[in-house]
């Protein structure tokens, strides 16, 4: 008999618990309108960065592609000339593609990059309607040209960019 | 029989069916909303203001879904089973009194479709047919999960219908009638939940079991049987099973209100009979909330626990309640 009373009391306790939880404030975040802040170290979609003068940081070395465990990155490098200059180095990435169906957002590319060209941002809204759209090319990866900079390719004076790998970290060698 | 009477009946039947089907649609929304609030969520709120168009969206979606019949299913029974489940759920409501009579269009219109003198017997008889639909659905699907679900439904119904029937007899003994209108009128002095608390509790528990709802939802136990008897159903046929379940939810809470909570009775009802349906709706909503609340709280019973509770606890208790009530009615009344 005492066991029955105990069981009934337990059911009552359970009902009281659920009733009380009904009076709590819902924890729902109304997602597309309301967004929660992400962690400072969040690893989301990549961006290819530029220097302040608009030149691309990427020198087409393919170290990111080599570091990528998911084989998501494809880089095809080409030679810079002073007439058509994309990056301060000897070469630049003519094709730079990241396949977001493969990418696991480990951040190894970011670690491998000698010029801090590829970085992961906090952007996580990556949905595609077909597989083609999941492959981001330079057009979507490259960050916009900074205010004082000029778009690439740039025409640069000869004799300024002579090193295969530009000097880091600050690079004020040439302003347009 | 004059044409006006025939028209009145037809209209009442149509209105009642419309109310029940709309009630079914919005009960799904209510359940999702209440469950969400209990789980500290918001629930559907995208389709229309407060998600009020959600049932419509669900209905349209189900209408346009492909209706699949498994290759080696028994086609006739497979198609018939949802119908056999839905029709009894709707037909039961014919005897529910929503109020007394109100003057309307120059005639006295009664707020029930039929007041038959064996209403409770009729309800017991019709509600037992619904289990055939569920069992046949399980059998005709040619799927072992569906079959197990159907078998469980049948076993559960048999085990709980006895206690359910016996708990109904308490109010019948007190009122001295099987007619629901008489039972409600007999509660004018005091609701029967006061005289028959045990019967009310037994009715509630067995009612939940008859509905196949949590914590007695063994026929469709997701974790063991995928979806039980409606595993193979899709599209509108699946929706019909849902309709049956939710219409029966409304019926069970309406019956609880009629038998134990004084049905359409309430303050000022004797002067204004039109208030009757309002009171009944409020009581039904209360009952529906309890059903949803129970679902949100209690985990599913194990099969042996279900059988033990039905046969060893509820059935003897209901019998005892019946004997004590009968003796007291003879001695006091």
Secondary structure elements and their pairing?
The complex is a heterodimer of chains A (176) and B (333).
Chain A lengths: L1 H21 L23 E3 L14 H5 L5 E7 L11 E9 L8 H5 L5 E3 L14 E2 L1 H4 L35
Antiparallel strand pairs in A: 1-4, 2-3, 3-5
Chain B lengths: L2 H36 L15 H10 L11 H17 L9 E4 L2 E4 L8 H22 L3 H32 L4 H6 L6 H4 L1 H14 L11 H4 L9 H26 L15 H22 L5 H30 L1
Antiparallel strand pairs in B: 1-2
Helix pairs in contact in B: 1-2, 1-10, 1-11, 2-10, 3-4, 3-10, 4-5, 5-8, 5-12, 8-10, 8-12, 10-11
* Overall number of structural domains of chain B: 1
Strand coverage percent of chain A: 5-15%
Task: State the helix count of chain B.
Answer: 12
Mean pLDDT across all amino acids of chain B: 85
Determine the most extensive contact between two protein chains: A-B, 14 and 13 residues
Q: Measured on Cα atoms, how large is the radius of gyration of chain B?
A: 20 Å
Q: Which structural class best describes the helix and strand composition of chain A? A: alpha+beta
Radius of gyration of chain A: 26 Å
* Spatial order of strands in the largest sheet of chain B: 1-2
Shape of chain A: elongated
Can you tell me the residue ranges of chain A where pLDDT is under 50 for at least 5 consecutive residues? Answer: none
* Tally of contiguous helical segments of chain A: 4
Give the H and E element order of chain B.
Answer: HHHEEHHHHHHHHH
Question: Which class best fits the helix and strand makeup of chain B?
Answer: mainly alpha
Distance linking N and C termini of chain A: 91 Å
Number of strands of chain B: 2
Mean pLDDT across residues of chain A: 86
Q: Care to describe what's here?
A:
The complex is a heterodimer of chains A (176) and B (333). Chain A has 4 helices and 5 strands, in the order H-E-H-E-E-H-E-E-H. By secondary structure, chain A is of the alpha+beta class. The relative contact order of chain A is 0.21. The mean pLDDT of chain A is 86. By secondary structure, chain B is mainly alpha-helical. Chain B has one domain. Chain B has a two-stranded antiparallel ribbon. The mean pLDDT of chain B is 85. Chains A and B meet through helix 1 of A and helix 1 and helix 11 of B.
